[in-house]
Amino acid sequence: xxxxxxxxxxxxxxxxxxxxxxxxxxxxxxxxxxxxxxxxxxxxxxxxxxxxxxxxxxxxxxxxxxxxxxxxxxxxxxxxxx
Length: 82
Fold this sequence. Notes:
Layout (H helix, E strand, L loop, with lengths): L1 H16 L32 H5 L28
């Protein structure tokens, strides 16, 4: 019983020690987004461009977020009016 407890503690310790922030592809890491290998056309053929991997457009970290364009508000009309 004592051996099983020691084994479980060691296994848990190894599991926790092995946890790191890793990326499957280099271009998933925001730190690499400006590197040549993560810019088109070099990454396009292999499908490793950041926007391809993340499934959305990538915004630069230093660039401010764009505000949505102003749209006209529609006033409600009475039923039957055109």
